[in-house]
Amino acid sequence: MTAFPELIAFQRDTEALSQVMGRLGWDQETVMPRGAAGQRADEMGALESVLHARRTDPRIGEWLAKSEAADAEGARMLALIARSFSRSQCVPARLAAELARTTSLAQGTWAEARARGDVQHFLPTLRQVVMLKREQGQALCEGTDAATAYDALLEDYEPETRAEDIAAIFDRMRPRLVALRNAVLGSGKIPDPLRGEFAQDSQLRLARKMAEAFGYDFTRGRLDLAVHPFSSGSGADVRITTRVVETDPFNCLYSTIHEVGHACYEQGIAPQYALTPLGQGVSMGVHESQSRIYENQLGRSAPFTAWIFAQMQQEFGDFGVDSPEAFHGIVNRVQPGFIRTEADEVHYNLHVMMRFDIERQLIDGSLDVGDLEEAWNARFLQDFGVAVDKPAHGLLQDVHWSVGLFGYFPTYTLGNVYAGCLMQALRKAVPDLDAQLARGDLAPATGWLRENVQQHGGLMAPREVITRACGAAPTEGPLLDYLDAKFGAIYGL
């Protein structure tokens, strides 16, 4: 008799508890009172101890040995449970709990340091996080086939991928991105930025309209404000956040569309996979492919920005832009900037490449946390030709390292690469896509993505999902060709 039903029932409770922990994280970022940070850290540590004990429960090994899968779905579930069990056993319970507690505290410390513009307030806490992540990476490295501690950490976000593979992709991308940037900036055709004041309530109304247009189901989600926008949850409870800058409505609108891409992936997974190993996105690279194709290839396209232009006029009246064509140019304005999340498509991947190099140095110990700000500022000046003017525009802009997400950053560019391939396939599958986008009708595009990517959840390995959807293995070529064509047309290159 197979032990498969017992194993899956046990796993279901573990997945449910993991969702509860994720909900605590959402609460911390949105509505938790500031004075609760210390208690929340203890709560997160306690819950992580429970989860770690479940993930390393000896019965899992016994059940795995006695389990037989009836189909491909069952086989994949067993493979994912076995992988999680093996990796969890490598990490001591003490370390798992301390990581959860420390990163919960660090998140609040980062937010305080960012608001105060005080890097020194954050560095001691970041040093603790880095030391714990090095220890975790080394423990995983010793217990798996990962070549380095960083590779072991990367595996949590993009399974079956190594840093050397990512570095090779980035090395191939960088020359074309730099050449395109130089051509655009040298064209003499950079439009002025959008100017004016755009009330928060109006921005949020428009953001909600954008979310609904892209198919986000508000009966299974909600939209809130956060310092750093994110998506949280899966299945029947998938929440998104955005942020508002009253002089820059694009910040709110495109942060929302981006997070809706993540959320629609989770909402689009086949319902029968809920609270199983298949019930979440298979990797952060595939996740980013959804958020980036929603935000950029669809959301910043000429036909869809024409539709947004009309919505902006309805909400704000005459806001100083006289045509859909001019609006499209402003939405896609190329300009060196400090903030990764606000970067145009030409510069965005250069931001990611910088962080990828720096975080590898932090984990392998070749860069000390005490020297991090200087290293960041020097690399930024080298790559972007602009000196960082304040910490919130530099080292303190991203939340990732404070919460221990080392290995996460490169998945942003992997997501862009995957999105480039998916968009190429989507255009072949939906020949009249532009006409639909011009009407604000995203259903054919998002429906294709749901059918070919989202519904599968964790059923296939990351590259297999993209390969099956596109009919060919993913490469950086389609993304770079898309960028050259799009910005070449906008800037007359």
TrEMBL record:
<dbReference type="InterPro" id="IPR001333">
    <property type="entry name" value="Peptidase_M32_Taq"/>
</dbReference>
<comment type="function">
    <text>Broad specificity carboxypetidase that releases amino acids sequentially from the C-terminus, including neutral, aromatic, polar and basic residues.</text>
</comment>
<keyword id="KW-0482">Metalloprotease</keyword>
<feature type="binding site">
    <location>
        <position position="288"/>
    </location>
    <ligand>
        <name>Zn(2+)</name>
    </ligand>
</feature>
<keyword id="KW-0862">Zinc</keyword>
<dbReference type="GO" id="GO:0006508">
    <property type="term" value="P:proteolysis"/>
</dbReference>
<keyword id="KW-0121">Carboxypeptidase</keyword>
<keyword id="KW-0645">Protease</keyword>
<feature type="binding site">
    <location>
        <position position="258"/>
    </location>
    <ligand>
        <name>Zn(2+)</name>
    </ligand>
</feature>
<protein>
    <recommendedName>
        <fullName>Metal-dependent carboxypeptidase</fullName>
        <ecNumber>3.4.17.19</ecNumber>
    </recommendedName>
</protein>
<keyword id="KW-0378">Hydrolase</keyword>
<comment type="similarity">
    <text>Belongs to the peptidase M32 family.</text>
</comment>
<keyword id="KW-0479">Metal-binding</keyword>
<dbReference type="Pfam" id="PF02074">
    <property type="entry name" value="Peptidase_M32"/>
</dbReference>
<feature type="active site" description="Proton donor/acceptor">
    <location>
        <position position="259"/>
    </location>
</feature>
<dbReference type="GO" id="GO:0046872">
    <property type="term" value="F:metal ion binding"/>
</dbReference>
<feature type="binding site">
    <location>
        <position position="262"/>
    </location>
    <ligand>
        <name>Zn(2+)</name>
    </ligand>
</feature>
<dbReference type="GO" id="GO:0004181">
    <property type="term" value="F:metallocarboxypeptidase activity"/>
</dbReference>
